[in-house]
């Protein structure tokens, strides 16, 4: 089982701390549960099974992390249970123990089957649910339950929302720290991205957890099927969307390889340019949507060269005249626009060969992503396979064009990225 099919390999750091914290919290909760005993066995088993199933059918919508909406909603729902149908609400230790054991039970079949999984994401889920359970237990008096009164209903709903917000906040903070360490992304930008994800996907899972808790608290074990069935249908729709996204990316990469097959770029040149462009985008704190457009633009930046008479030696488009490069960029943008769904990418490619002095320096409408692609392509052609230039020598060459050919902000970002040890 390789790293792309199994656990994602990450350098020791915050990931190790997250796994360690989850292990300590989980073992402590399990010890307390063994000592105190399990209350309301049917509910513990039911929600544990839901969490395990959710972990088994987890999937990846984007490239950042796996999603397990059923597991998250079920764990939150169990943490928020109250009477009357549930005589004794689960305490914090029991919630953590059931969530932790069910998570392990759900992940094991994926490991045995060689499917993708991520131990850090699973640990983040356990820690977030633990925080939600602790907050809900702290703010909810023992005599507050669903008794049909509006006062109690409003109080309980408010406490549940606070618990869900706590879980989302903790997960966002942990995720931002991970992104900062893994991609060298500025923490404020990483926190912004995680907050957007929490607001879109996380809160949907949180509300589902609240509905699951309310339904079970009022209807007993008839409640989970009423809420979980729509969740399964929603997950099916998400998986179809994820499949379409993977097909979309595969198509873009196939288009990018066409220039290599025709000899207009060296083998792997487009992929290396995109790799560097993504690193620069992370360093500059671009949003995920802009990062995706940037990667696609870097991959497709050479498509327009197919309309030129002859390939550049070794794919070195920098050896062509300014007029040829800009004509290739315009043709490439026109080709991309014909897809009907990549207009934003086409705009980046159209200006990817514009000199900074006559381009973005005087026109703020030109996206910074164009300058990133320009710098990334230049650096790749200077130090890529077969060129022989060192990173330092390449930086000197690019530095001569600061303010005229290249965007100073992007060049400074390149210095930081190379200084941190970036290599193709």
Task: Describe the overall structure.
The protein is mainly α. Helix 2 packs parallel to helix 4. The protein is elongated, with a radius of gyration of 26 Å. The protein starts with 13 loop residues before the first helix and ends in a 5-residue tail after the last helix. It contains 15 helices and no strands.
CA gyration radius, whole angstroms: 26 Å
Order of helices and strands: HHHHHHHHHHHHHHH
Structural class: mainly alpha
Query: What is the straight-line distance between the termini?
Result: 25 Å
Shape field: elongated
How much helical structure, as a percent, in the residues?
55-70%
Give the rounded overall mean pLDDT: 85
Q: Which stretches are poorly predicted, pLDDT < 50 over at least 5 residues?
A: 1-12
The number of helices is: 15
Main sheet record: none
Number of strands: 0
Task: Describe this structure in a few short sentences.
The protein has 424 residues and is mainly alpha-helical.
List the helices and strands and how they pair.
Layout: H1 14-36, H2 41-56, H3 69-79, H4 92-113, H5 119-139, H6 150-183, H7 187-219, H8 223-261, H9 269-283, H10 288-300, H11 322-337, H12 343-350, H13 368-383, H14 391-399, H15 408-419
Helix pairs in contact: 1-4, 1-5, 2-3, 2-4, 3-4, 3-5, 3-7, 4-5, 5-6, 6-7, 7-8, 9-10, 9-13, 10-12, 10-13, 11-12, 12-13, 13-14, 14-15
